[in-house]
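anyone seen this seq b4? input:
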Amino acid sequence: MSHFDFPACRDSPLQDAPHLAAALGIGSLALKRDDLLPFAGGGTKCRKLAGLVERLAQTPADTLLLSGGATSNQVRIIAAVASQTMRACEVVLNAGPDSAAADFARLFGAVVHALPGADAWALNAAIRSRLKALSAEGRAPLVVPAASAADLPCYDEAIAEIVRADADVIVVAAGSGATSAGFLLGLDRHLAHCRLLAVSVDRPAAELRTVITRLLASSGIAADGTDMPRIMQRLDVEDRFIGAGYGVPSAASHRAVELAARSEGVLLEPVYTGKALAALASIAAEGGIARNARVIFWHTGGVPYLASSLAQLRS
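predicted toks r here
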């Protein structure tokens, strides 16, 4: 396999957003711009790649195998890693073969297995089937999970980048739960008073909390359970903005995308970050965030999918 000079995906800009803050009625708002991380279109998922690349250097894996949805940041980024390291890549999607994630995966040379409407069980079954088939062919596949306790340290370390901002609330879109779990560990280490507002893009609040708890427990950092209550009490989960489901834009998320663009010139997308901003706007309007609170909105990326979402809106 070829050597891979992986770009440093950390220390993303923290951008003040005074016009957006004023529109939301928040005293202080900054945007953590992980969309500007320097690999394959950016996004917070880039942070996990240093660990993956290190793992690839120690394994004979010749094929990366993963699953995702129609606008999965991980699918785009892992397919790019496979291309850069001269490995094959196979992607199982619960979306059609013409979805945006499928297009990006194929652009990077991946093979796409489209299973529109498949649930998590069906996706996992398909991954196991491909793992068995590839192994039988003499290949050495490596499954890259959407969420793993091994990913938590990189998200934990991300919080260290914003310590000087002394935030009261961090807002982030939550899908797999790994980013939120890692952020909670970072808050526990670096920001004693800050809370995390995780805006679910696909799971009921109770389910997302359970997933986050399991990731923390399996990380080993909080495995004995003694730290879990302290860590989890920093978490608020909002699930009112899922809309029609995962990967489906909503009217509220489109309005949020427009608001960010017109107030700060910042591009979001309507199925992750747009839903998170819509939630922040609603909670602020309800009085759920103090007017003098220092808020950081974590831009987790996904902008490469914006064009397809806008086209979907017009159709």
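The two ends are 43 Å apart (CA to CA). The chain has a mean pLDDT of 93. kinda curious what u guys think
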